[in-house]
Amino acid sequence: MVTRLDWTSQSGGALHGSVRVPGDKSVSHRALMLGALADGTSHIRGFLEGEDTRATAAVLQQLGVRIDTPTDGERVVHGVGLHGLRGTTEQLDCGNAGTGMRLLTGLLAGQSFDSTLVGDESLSKRPMRRVTDPLALMGARIDTQDGLPPLLVRGGQPLHGISYTLPVASAQVKSALLLAGLYAQGETEVIEPHPTRDYTERMLAAFGWPIDFSPGRARIGGGHALRATDVDVPADFSSAAFFLVAASIVPGSELRLPAVGLNPRRTGLLQALRLMGADIRVENERESGGEPVGDLVVRHAPLHGIELPEALVPDMIDEFPVLFVAAAAATGTTVVRGAAELRVKESDRIASMARGLRALGVAIEEAPDGATIEGGVIGGGAIDSHGDHRIAMSFAVAGLVANGTVQIGDCANVATSFPGFMELANGCGFRLA
Fold it and tell me: Does 49 or 341 have the greater pLDDT score?
């Protein structure tokens, strides 16, 4: 049971310094899972020490995988091979990790034993049929509570490959189907209405599994093996996003964010902020573990409202809360459409951000798939983050330019994705308590 944690955020001076944000959560989850199923020992460096990723590691350990922690941010995964996991009668607790639960559902669908996946109160309200329905087409048997967790994944089901077109673009659903495809007879193909993050595809290739993929499409066959490999996890772009917006809206600011993952399916916010007038440079571009990486340098610049191109939406789905803050601090009107996925994240992020911004005096009109935000003055006030880590951190950014104190309720879940956020933020000039 996590005790309630509340924050206050206030305006101060300009932000300066070099901010090394934690490792990418999506890459950390996938490196653990593929390392566990590989033959041999995989070393993961830059691992995100968050509650979500630790929950995934704990589940894999319950399934018989030895995972060592030589130092913080490092994991050594002793792979058991594709068919080496051992069943357990204990529940497998994914905590708050939607990525962990959805990917593990695909991975466990191909095992010989039954598994029960559970989560915390927030995760227990998140829809799972988008994963369980296509897995059922592959031959999986998964019992849900009216489409919600807990999930009972039945073992011993022969899986067969399918060609599946996702009704809604989702990297988590795509990844679950590809992980099930490792155990399926024949080929598994996933087609997306819009291209999403290709972390799973890139990492399967790095672990030696034959895969054919391009933006919006991925295809694998069963019957191969994963080979252990070392993974250097880039800094998480979603975590960097709060600092990109903060330095953009606070006059006189300049921040450097080293070694940030720049997967093109992840950096929609970078393009959106540039359309709004942000001054963000990419330096020292390189590749690490199959992923593009670079140092981001952001300076304050006056932002203006935009009509967000819908093509950017799938590539920035986790960054919308902080984009709403950027829009509130900008001059003019920002219109967001095509983001209905935000309704089913850790909270209904459209409703939660709209309520919070209104409490700070910002004019915002909700739509089923987005919002219209009038930029201008942000006031002080009290908001509830509804236990959603990204909403809590977004309002911490809003407090930097508010003309009063912003009180943020229910912030304990920030530790799921960004341990040490407060210390890092205050180190570069936030006034967060």
Answer: 49
